[in-house]
Amino acid sequence: MSIDIETAARVAKLARIRVDEDDLPQLAHAFNDILGFIEQLNEVDVEGVEPMVSVTPMRLKRRADGVTDGNMADRILSNAPDAREGFFAVPKVVE
């Protein structure tokens, strides 16, 4: 596929990029270079190659998923204007 100057102008307009008329041939050439590189990548045989997340094989560090209260309940409740029996006390809003 080849990109001509009119197509390069249309792409620039769709991308909302202002390109001078003098720069359109260079932009079309750059688009053609990119498409040529993509065509080269399409020629590579990747059959049987597993996808990878990183170039270095490493496992994510994992910690035990344990539910805790953070051992800071007393410090947190000390900031509350009204706390009772280990909970925040709030005014009743529903009758």
Write the SSE topology:
Blueprint: H1 5-14, H2 24-42, H3 73-77, E1 83-84, E2 87-88
Antiparallel strand pairs: 1-2
Q: What is the helix fraction of residues, given as a range?
A: 25-40%
Strand arrangement in the largest pleated sheet: 1-2
DSSP summary: helix tally: 3
Structural class: mainly alpha
Strand content: under 5%
Number of strands: 2
- Mean pLDDT across the residues is 90
Q: Pick out the low-confidence regions.
A: none
Q: Assign an overall shape.
A: elongated
Rg estimate, integer Å: 31 Å
SSE order: HHHEE
Biggest sheet, in brief?
A: 2 strands, antiparallel
Distance between the amino and carboxyl termini: 71 Å
Give a concise summary.
It is an enzyme of class 6 (ligase). InterPro entries: Asp/Glu-ADT_sf_sub_c, GatC. The protein has helices at 5-14, 24-42, 73-77; strands at residues 83-84, 87-88.
